[in-house]
Specification:
Shape: globular
Largest sheet: 7 strands, mixed
Radius of gyration: 22 Å
Helix content: 40-55%
CATH superfamily of the largest domain: Type I PLP-dependent aspartate aminotransferase-like (Major domain)
CATH topology of the largest domain: Aspartate Aminotransferase, domain 2
Bound molecules: 4'-deoxy-4'-aminopyridoxal-5'-phosphate
């Protein structure tokens, strides 16, 4: 097991103060802080290797290309994809979902065809499909959940019809922390010959992921949530599927030959990577994945589980506390409200104590509607958080309650 206190030294920002108090950063589901090795990777590559990738014969271009393609291999290994050609670099989860929704709807769906999503999706996995619904007349169907925040598998099975073309669901809810039974969801979909996209934005930083073991057809995530830089993310797609989908954007890199009469497209994964890729970001993302791999994803998961269980027990002893999301399988996201206290007021007072949490609808308005609230306060944990930070949160909430009631 890694040493949390020592690990914190790798993250310079964690030793800063806000309003004169030590920072307690509990907004990790929105974005994580960066270890030194990730920031240094960005600086070093700009200072010593920077050149555009793929087409250059010169030394720097070849070195930059090697770094970029090695990073693709690092991502492949991290999620156990079969081939590096199944790893497409994108700007993040949102762009990855939009890519699949657009190319899949264009090539595989007709008016009246259906996509199954769940009630706990992030807006990116709702609105991307709604844009296609508006364009092509496809229909969204929604998996409901129980009051603990668990998807209802019986209801899920009933949603399949001969018109179902794809299922698109989150691995882990960014509001409830529910870990959805994705292997089972995929097994059921495959029994109906329907492929599945898994939104891994909230799972990749917290648990080992093996896309082949899960059987996922598409798996998407953002670099910045797994200690990597902003502006880079990943679309994993099984080769059989990526081969069948048309390009998402046109430009350089994604073509084989271009003439005004006919253009042929590059092979995978370049068919989906139009324009100069974020090769600085891909190297830094690979450093982030190396970093968490060295700590051990199982140990990170165990550490965060300990924090979450402790946070739940501390918070539940606060009078008027209401926790949202009581799934049996849960991750390190704790959403809550305290009776009589507006979430924005709670978030603002915690902030003044140096405690960063998120308040609001968390880009999941349909889920808020299902829960009958407008927003919640959300604390979310990362590999570097400590039990004493959980204590600070619980004490901060108690103080805020006294001030606000
Ligand atoms: N899906 C989930 C479950 C998320 O939590 C988020 C980020 N909050 C996203 C998608 C979107 O990620 P990004 O903004 O990095 O594209």
């Amino acid at each position: 097991m890694y040493d949390t206190v020592k690990t914190r030294e790798d993250f310079p920002i964690l030793s800063r103060t806000v309003y004169g108090r030590p920072l307690v950063y509990l907004d990790n589901a929105a974005t994580t802080q960066k270890p030194r090795c990730v920031v240094e990777s960005i600086v070093n590559e700009y200072y010593s290797v920077n050149a555009n990738v793929h087409r250059g014969v010169h030394f720097l271009s070849q070195q930059a290309t090697e770094l970029h393609e090695n990073s693709r291999e690092t991502v492949r290994r991290f999620i156990n994809a079969r081939s590096a050609s199944e790893i497409v670099f994108t700007r993040g989860t949102t762009e990855s979902v939009n890519l699949v929704a657009s190319s899949f709807a264009d090539s595989q769906m007709q008016a009246g065809d259906e996509v199954i999503v769940s009630v706990m999706e992030h807006h990116s996995n709702i609105v991307s499909w709604q844009l296609q619904a508006a364009r092509k007349g496809i229909v969204l169907k929604v998996i409901p959940m129980n009051d603990q925040g668990e998807l209802l598998l019986d209801e899920y099975e009933k949603l399949f019809t001969p018109r179902t073309r794809i299922v698109s669901v989150a691995h882990v809810s960014n509001v409830l922390g529910t870990v959805n039974p994705v292997a089972e969801l995929i097994r059921i979909a495959h029994a109906h010959d329907v492929p599945v996209l898994i939104d891994g934005a909230q799972s990749i930083p917290h648990t080992p992921v093996d896309v082949q073991a899960l059987g996922a057809d598409f798996y998407v995530f953002s670099g910045h949530k797994v200690y990597g830089p902003t502006g880079i993310g990943v679309l994993y797609g099984r080769e059989e599927w990526l081969d069948r989908l048309p390009p998402y954007q046109g430009g350089g890199e994604m073509i084989k030959n271009v003439s005004f009469e006919k253009t042929t497209f590059n092979e995978l994964p370049f068919k989906f990577e139009a324009g100069t890729p974020d090769y600085i970001g891909s190297t830094a993302l690979a450093r982030a994945l190396d970093y968490v791999s060295a700590l051990g994803m199982e140990d990170i998961e165990r550490h965060e589980r300990g924090l979450t269980l402790y946070a739940l027990s501390r918070l539940k002893s606060i009078p008027g506390m209401r926790i949202f999301g009581e799934a049996e399988h849960r991750s390190g996201v704790v959403s809550f409200l305290v009776d009589g206290v507006h979430p924005l007021d709670m978030g603002t007072l915690l902030d003044r104590m140096g405690i960063a949490v998120r308040t609001g609808h968390h880009c999941a308005e349909p889920l808020m509607r299902r829960m009958g609230v407008e927003g919640t306060v959300r604390a979310s944990f990362a590999l570097y958080n400590t039990m004493s930070e959980v204590d600070a949160l619980a004490e901060g909430i108690e103080r805020a309650c006294k001030m606000l009631r």
